[in-house]
Write a structure and sequence with these properties.
The structure is a homodimer.
Chain A: H1 14-27, E1 36-37, H2 39-45, H3 50-62, E2 66-69, E3 73-76, H4 81-102, H5 108-123, H6 127-142, H7 148-170, H8 174-190, H9 194-214
Antiparallel strand pairs in A: 1-3, 2-3
Helix pairs in contact in A: 1-3, 2-3, 4-7, 4-9, 5-6, 5-8, 6-7, 6-8, 8-9
The structure holds a DNA duplex.
Chain lengths: ~220, ~220
Amino acid sequence: MKLKSMDISATASASSIVFDALRKAIIGGQLEEGEPLRQDEIARLFNTSRIPVREAISRLEEQGLVKTQRYKGAVVAGLSPQETEEIFDLRALVEPEIIRNAVPLMSKELLTKARDKCAAFSASSDPMEWGDLNRDFHETLYSASDLKFFLEIAHNAIDRVERQIRAQLVMSNGMERAGREHFGILEACEEGDAEQAAKLTRDHIQGAKKSLLAHLPLS
Amino acid sequence: MKLKSMDISATASASSIVFDALRKAIIGGQLEEGEPLRQDEIARLFNTSRIPVREAISRLEEQGLVKTQRYKGAVVAGLSPQETEEIFDLRALVEPEIIRNAVPLMSKELLTKARDKCAAFSASSDPMEWGDLNRDFHETLYSASDLKFFLEIAHNAIDRVERQIRAQLVMSNGMERAGREHFGILEACEEGDAEQAAKLTRDHIQGAKKSLLAHLPLS
DNA sequence: ATAAACCAAATTGGATCCAATATTCAATAT
DNA sequence: ATATTGAATATTGGATCCAATTTGGTTTAT
């Protein structure tokens, strides 16, 4: 018996497959804000019935990624400038705590991985992948933390503003500055300076918020 | 046309009725942690089919109030001492921000209402209602805030530890101290001292955490 | 007697069908 | 011509039915 074992109960249900796919499509911008999600259409796309689709949509609504009206259906949720600002403030409050908690728990390997991601981000010239590389770097650092609820909240908050983050990276000197700031955060982590890492993370998020709001309509 | 208008589309769907009822039963302690939620049984209780029940349960799972396993069903979620501590730390981070934001927005009427709730809490001698009165007081103050995402998170965090909060209130001098601290928070709000209100709120939550953890098994 | 194999009941996940509501567009009245 | 009514269509919410999986007890082989 030389089979690689695999938890069969971990196989995904139809509804979770649909949920993951819709979530990615929403935060990735393939579905744009306000766009209606037709249960029938989605069910056909995934070769299932509408039941798993409905469950997926109700979960997305609970996460704030879609808004539904009774008998009218669901549309991709959008954010007003005020709401965007609030989400960034929330991130600026929670993510520094995560980093502060994570720094003493970071292994050598994790720091190496983070350095690679940091480099990959700075080196990329394809705007299509900047958003993913950015998130990848941050979440690598965060993954050392054992604050699961803080992480839940940070992930959801980032989900809700992924599109804005991508927009912010492509504008003016967004990439250049983000790369620089990432490097600063990474260095603080490598030196084990949790306070400094937390402070730089807060500044990084507040800076992104500021440059984003400056370019938003009549904020 | 002198009809009082009413938004008919705001009538509750079956799934949201079930969701609300289950949520209240869970945080109110009527369903205890680990207790399985049988779709069939719940559907019979509400005279519906299992479809709305399943949607309600999937939403509860997204909120962290139940845990489900494929083909095994859902059980009421519980918290380890470490998880409980983390939730209180989260509350201690978020709720002071809410108060700080709310204080300048509090109307004379709201403060009057809050004073009444504060008095009602301190006056109550029925342990069964202490949890509700406590939450009622805090949320009255919070309701002046316009930070909807912060509020979402605070509400959910409180949901998850309602049972522990109730336990904390009935033990030793929990009620007495809470009443005193509530009054301090209220006073700071009335004086328009947002900083002080935030600080007292943080202390209130951290104090509750400490006295709770001291009584928890092998924390 | 004990442990593996297995069958029946219970339970959940998903599909199909029906009901309730919304939307669109043609018909009609003013 | 425009606004209103009303029917046809589209879409969602919920009910019922079937399939997949788990669970608990029973049988059977050693």
